[in-house]
Every structure is written in C-alpha cells, then in structure tokens.
C-alpha cells in the first residue's frame, strides 16, 4: 500500500496498535521535556556536569533526560525548577480531533 502522507501512516499504525495515540503522546512529552531541560541548561551556560551538580542529580540522569531516554518524574522537574529559580508550568492544549 502506498501512503500519501504522515497522517496515512499514523492511521495505519492506529489500526495496528490501539495504544498508538498514548505512545505518541508519551514520546512527544519526552521530547518536550528533553528540549526544555537542554534549553534551560544552555540558557544558564552550564555543562551537563555543572547543571547536574546544581540540581542535585547525576550527570547521567541529566544526559538521559536531555536525550529523551529517561522519563523525568514530576519530582525531578520540580527539583530542577526550584534549584534554577524557575516555575514549572503545565498546560493542556486543545487538539484537532477531526484528524483521528
């Protein structure tokens, strides 16, 4: 079967795996967290080692979060926010359900 778009591909995956949307949302959240932590560290001008020391985590934990290989717990994100004098924001955005 020839796919016309990424949406066609996603629709095929949804048919094969009823948990596809949950897995996709999880992967998107990991990516957002990874980018957010990495951008914060860069904004502070710190190496991973320096950032890890500042927030009280291991360098390997920070590296795994920044690459998306580790899910950062809400407590880890709170710890990072507190130690870097930031607030942690959570929001729920509307999605276009007509695509599903």
Automatic annotation (TrEMBL):
The family database entries (Pfam families) matched by this protein are listed as: HTH_3
The record, for SUPFAM superfamilies, names: lambda repressor-like DNA-binding domains (SSF47413)
Q: Which residues form the HTH cro/C1-type domain?
A: 37-91
Annotated protein name in UniProt: Helix-turn-helix transcriptional regulator
CDD domains (alphabetical) = HTH_XRE (cd00093)
Gene3D superfamilies recorded = lambda repressor-like DNA-binding domains
Q: Which InterPro entries match?
A: Cro/C1-type_HTH, Lambda_DNA-bd_dom_sf
């Amino acid at each position: 079967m020839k796919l016309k778009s990424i949406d066609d591909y996603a629709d095929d995956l949804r048919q094969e795996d009823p948990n596809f949307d949950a897995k996709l949302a999880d992967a998107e959240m990991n990516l957002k967290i990874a980018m957010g932590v990495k951008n914060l560290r860069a904004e502070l001008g710190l190496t991973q080692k320096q950032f890890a020391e500042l927030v009280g985590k291991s360098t390997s934990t920070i590296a795994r979060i920044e690459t998306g290989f580790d899910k950062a717990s809400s407590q880890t994100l709170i710890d990072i926010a507190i130690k870097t004098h930031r607030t942690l924001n959570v929001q729920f955005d509307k999605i276009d359900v007509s695509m599903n």
